[in-house]
Amino acid sequence: MYSDIYKLIEEYDNIVLARHVGVDPDAMASVMALHDSILLTFPKKKVYAVGSGSNRFSYFGKLDKIDKIENALLIVLDTPDIRRIDGVNLADYKKIVKIDHHPFVEKYGDIEYIDDKASSASELVLELINETQLLMDKNIAGKIYLGIVSDTNRFMFNNSTGKTFLEVAKMVQEYKLEIDKLYEPLYLRPLSEVKLEGYIGLNLEVTENGVAYIRLTKEILDKYKVDAASPGNMINNFNYINEVLVWTFFTEDVKNENIRVSVRSRGPVINTLLVNYNGGGHKFASGARIKTMEESNDIIKDLDKLCKEYKERGENDENK
Ligand code: AMP
Fold first, then answer.
1. Do 240 and 264 touch, CB atoms closer than 8 A?
2. Residue 179 is part of which domain span?
3. What is the pLDDT of residues 160-188, one digit of tens each?
4. Number of folded domains in the chain?
5. Best of 30, 86, 216, 286 for a ligand 1 pocket test (most atoms within 8 Å of beta carbon)
6. How far apart are CA 40 and CA 253, in angstroms?
7. Would residue 178 be called left, alpha or beta, if left means φ above 0 and alpha means ψ between -120 and 50 degrees?
8. Tell me, what DSSP letter sits at residue 54?
9. Beta bridge partners of 249
10. pTM for the whole thing?
11. CA-CA distance, 31 to 97, in Å (whole number)?
12. Is 161 a member of any domain?
């Protein structure tokens, strides 16, 4: 499969790389690492990384604005379904490749490389580079490292396999990655976000069966001088709380006229439930968009039921 993807990269002079809306570090890292690797290997090709950006991730590299492009190959990373692809019209492309680590949702590529056991899209880019003649350097290795670190929450989630550790270890050694310097732009954050995190900790509510939730309205975001994307950056910090099995933030997004829903779990599978709310994602890390804050009540109720069933099945039994 990787050699088929490499053949297409070799064949096309114009290559566009895209990923999902609501960009996150793995989406950005996988796109920019592949972008840089294709250019390093084939300096004469025109390679564009598209999608709406975020200042927060500008250290990964500059995004491109493109008009309609002829005879191009499109490679979409980290995106299981068409509705969440950011900034491209699939009909404009001669050939489409999908490289993804989400559970399968729908087919849209001529070649689809999907491994939902992989830690991240960045890990798949690392494999693609390792298994073909695509080149790597320290800059590319650094981006891949950050993508993997971010989607595994620093190797804490069980999507970090032995293979992930081995491949990352080899890369760190070979390219002499200075991980403290790499972490700085990924983890440096304004004091306002730390204060918001304090607010969330103080105000989280927990249901009978272990669903922690908080509703973050525009007033609260304004008070803490943060934007609607900020709560999503800290949701992983609420893992490993005794009384909590599943936790969710509902954040008012005035610009997009919706409510962002982020959900994490340390037991029950949540993505199949979020599909009912115009969302999806991974088994234990999912998201959705809803129209009104009132709908959050239904999600909380459904999640609580999920936790109850999970506990009844005994999957929370420490002695198992
Ligand atoms: P987030 O909580 O936004 O970090 O998202 C966690 C995971 O859920 C990521 O894999 C996202 O791609 C996925 N996700 C977030 N929002 C949606 C949505 N509206 N529809 C489908 N998947 C989503």
1. no
2. 2-186
3. 999 999 999 999 999 999 999 999 999 99
4. 2
5. 286
6. 39
7. beta
8. -
9. 214, 262
10. 0.92
11. 13
12. yes
